[in-house]
Amino acid sequence: MVTAVTTEKLFANACIESFIHMPAAGATEQSVKAGATATTWKAMRDYEGFAVIAVQSVLGGNGMIELSIYAATDASATNATEIKTTGVVACDAIGDYTCLEVSAEEIEQLGIAAGYKFTHVTAYIDSHHNDDEQGVTYIRYGAKRPASGLTAETIS
């Protein structure tokens, strides 16, 4: 039965965004881009953690071979530092995926050790070939100020 009552639990406590990553060159680790050029660094100020899921969507070579989370001191990737990685993976078929998660505390502690105050995160993907494309979902979770609309229902 359809209900007139609406609730937001996950979407009010997390910011979930999806992108299509199209690498500019194969066999190099690159920050995830929305399409071919727009970078996807995200502020962590209001969240307790960050997770990323990457699924092989177009296979032009042997697919995705590594997924990493990087942190930086601003949205332009200043002092970009790898925080966590899957290591080598074999996402060599459409639909293969991998995921990673990092807490704000982990990011902060690694920043202190490196002498930085990290404020932004992104994912980096290493693809075998520049025709390998991935669908990527970012989840910034544990909103410090939950609110309706943190996750947009439709982007078009």
Structure commentary:
- The protein is mostly beta strands and 156 residues long.
- It has one domain: Jelly Rolls, CATH 2.60.120.380.
- The chain is built from two helices and eleven strands.
- Strands 2, 5, 7, 8 and 10 form a five-stranded antiparallel β-sheet that branches. Strands 1-11-6-9 form a four-stranded antiparallel β-sheet.
- The two termini are 29 Å apart.
- The mean pLDDT is 89.
Secondary structure elements and their pairing?
Layout: H1 10-13, E1 14-21, E2 29-31, E3 33-34, E4 38-39, E5 42-43, E6 49-58, E7 64-72, E8 81-85, E9 97-103, H2 104-114, E10 120-127, E11 133-141
Primary descriptors:
single chain; 156 residues; mainly beta; Jelly Rolls; five-stranded antiparallel sheet; four-stranded antiparallel sheet; 2 helices; 10% helix
Which topology does CATH recognise?
Jelly Rolls
Give the % helix. Answer: under 10%
Provide a count of the helices.
2
Quick one: overall form? globular
Strand content: 35-45%
**Structural domain count:** 1
Alpha-carbon distance between the termini?
29 Å
**N-to-C SSE series?**
HEEEEEEEEEHEE
Radius of gyration: 16 Å
Mean pLDDT: 89
Poorly predicted residue ranges: none
The counted number of beta strands is 11
The largest β sheet comes out as: 5 strands, antiparallel
CATH class: Mainly Beta
